[in-house]
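Design request, tokens follow.
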């Protein structure tokens, strides 16, 4: 945790804002994008402006390096979102870039489930070893939603039960299998309800030791119907606002699944690979899931995901009469596999999950001490940190915009949208985190924002 000096090189630099964001080039590019993208993006911008009373014009990224992003106007930001948490190693990590360079001269695409590649072999062997029992099997995908789909399909193949138990506040992606289990907000599911799995029930996610019993009663009641084949859970809620459940939650869930013959699916797409300060949050809590989903950080920014299952949870795929009933053209693409292999190498070499734990603990302590009663809650694990604000989603959006104006990129999350969600690269310099804490303390008051502008 050495000192950064006055202003770091691009990669670990403090913000440098040349023109108030969004600058003219960003505005122009964003308007052109809005004219051809799904109208939902522009509609969201408009509704955010109405809700928060602040402009929500988009900046447009031109390049990234480490913890910094440069927009098309030349503004340098500190990226505390890291691609929705996916850029564990920051933007354009050199080791991964080198690996991609080497792979790009050899092979980009093999033949999926027909003929694999050496890169896919190496990655699958490595991923299978993450599972704490012999015989684990791996199914690769491109997105987190693909990994969740593979897990839910594995569970129904194995148990014969179509039911899924998911949690309020949970998020597993938006393609149809995970969408049916999306507990973040009903509005994600409602327009598509007629096309979704009807056999999904939701239990409350325990936000504290006090609410654990209520959650587990709902879990037991659902499992007692015997129709549930999969219980899908995030070890820590990510999009749901960085909610850390009580330590007994996952072990109790494991025991309940065992009693009722359901498969436990741990969605570690956000928490996994060091983000939460442990390699895998579920395993660190002493729980062995039947199926583990990884995505986001696996490819350092390239689209790749994985569902890792125990021998028992995966065996049913082999009994399906010889056809590969779950595959896609780009699953296991060698270029993405090469990125994932290099990501593992860098994460292990730098012991970045240990660093994320240490730096995250220090940052949480500092944020709590500095922000005090100005915020409702500061929580998280490793480098997934949520800061709950009063004033609802509108206030959180307004604070996020003030931060953007000063060169700090953050997202809002949580069921009500009232949580600033921070997922910086795992190797972010601590001086940047310290500087952010001060900036946030100022951004929390409108007078502070005036003083800043
Ligand atoms: N699961 C979790 C916990 C997530 O946070 C996300 C995305 O934010 C997903 C699954 C879906 O991943 P993707 O957006 O790559 O489909």
């Amino acid at each position: 945790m050495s000192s950064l000096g006055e202003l770091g090189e691009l990669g670990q630099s403090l913000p440098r804002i040349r023109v108030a964001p969004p600058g003219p080039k960003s505005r122009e590019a964003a308007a052109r994008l809005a004219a051809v993208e799904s109208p939902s993006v522009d509609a969201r911008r408009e509704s955010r402006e109405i809700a928060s009373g602040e402009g929500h014009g988009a900046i447009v990224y031109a390049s990234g390096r480490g913890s910094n992003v440069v927009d098309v106007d030349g503004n340098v930001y500190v990226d505390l979102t890291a691609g929705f948490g996916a850029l564990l190693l920051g933007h354009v990590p050199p080791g991964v870039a080198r690996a991609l360079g080497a792979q790009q001269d050899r092979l980009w695409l093999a033949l999926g489930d027909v003929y694999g590649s050496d890169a896919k072999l190496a990655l699958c062997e490595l991923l299978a070893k993450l599972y704490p029992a012999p015989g684990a099997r791996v199914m690769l995908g491109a997105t987190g939603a693909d990994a969740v789909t593979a897990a839910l399909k594995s569970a129904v193949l194995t148990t014969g039960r179509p039911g899924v138990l998911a949690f309020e506040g949970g998020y597993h992606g938006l393609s149809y299998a995970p969408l049916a289990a999306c507990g973040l907000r009903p509005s994600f599911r409602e327009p598509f309800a007629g096309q979704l799995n009807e056999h999904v029930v939701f239990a409350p996610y325990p936000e504290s030791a006090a609410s654990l019993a209520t959650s587990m009663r709902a879990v037991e009641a659902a499992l007692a119907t015997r129709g549930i084949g999969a219980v899908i859970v995030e070890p820590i809620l990510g999009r749901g606002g960085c909610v850390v459940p009580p330590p007994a939650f996952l072990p109790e869930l494991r025991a309940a699944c065992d009693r009722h013959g359901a498969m436990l699916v741990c969605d570690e797409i956000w928490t996994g690979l060091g983000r939460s300060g442990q390699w895998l949050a579920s395993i660190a809590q002493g729980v062995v899931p039947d199926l583990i989903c990884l995505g986001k950080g696996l490819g350092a920014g390239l689209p790749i995901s994985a569902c890792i299952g125990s021998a028992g949870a995966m065996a049913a795929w082999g009994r399906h009469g010889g056809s590969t009933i779950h595959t896609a053209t780009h699953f296991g693409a060698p270029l993405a596999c090469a990125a994932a292999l290099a990501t593992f190498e860098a994460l292990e070499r730098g012991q970045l999950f240990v660093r994320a734990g240490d730096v995250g603990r220090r940052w949480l302590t500092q944020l709590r001490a500095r922000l005090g009663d100005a915020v409702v809650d500061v929580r998280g694990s490793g480098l997934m940190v949520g800061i709950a604000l009063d004033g609802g989603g509108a206030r959180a959006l307004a604070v996020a915009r003030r931060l953007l104006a000063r060169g700090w990129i953050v997202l809002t999350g949580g069921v009500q949208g009232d949580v600033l969600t921070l997922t910086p690269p795992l190797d972010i310099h601590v001086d940047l985190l310290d500087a952010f804490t001060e900036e946030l303390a100022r951004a929390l008051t409108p007078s502070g924002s005036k003083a800043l502008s």
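Comment from the thread starter after seeing the answer: thanks! Residues 1-6, 448-453 have pLDDT under 50 and may be disordered.
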